[in-house]
Design brief:
The model has no long low-confidence stretch (mean pLDDT 82). The chain is an all-alpha fold. The longest helix is centred in the middle third of the chain and has 57 residues. The radius of gyration is 39 Å and the shape is rod-shaped.
């Protein structure tokens, strides 16, 4: 009697597993973009405030010069 042996092979196919590194990089890039937008807005706001302060100072100097000129004119007319 001849004995037949059958060999069975089981193949397991696992899905691709991600380590999550791509997701971490994407989140880091998103945070960097949000931070850049935030700090860029802060710089723009401070530039606007600085420009406004310089403009106000220039207007004050101009008014003082006008008053000094008026006082000099009045002094020469008397």
């Amino acid at each position: 009697m001849v004995e037949e042996r059958t060999t069975r092979t089981t193949t397991v196919i696992e899905g691709r597993r991600s380590s999550g590194a791509g997701m971490i990089i994407a989140i880091a890039v998103l945070i960097a973009v949000i931070a850049a937008i935030y700090f860029g807005g802060q710089l723009t706001g401070s530039e606007t405030r600085k420009d406004s302060a310089v403009e106000n100072a220039a207007n004050s100097v101009s008014k003082a010069a006008d008053q000094a000129g008026d006082a000099a004119k009045d002094a020469t007319q008397n």
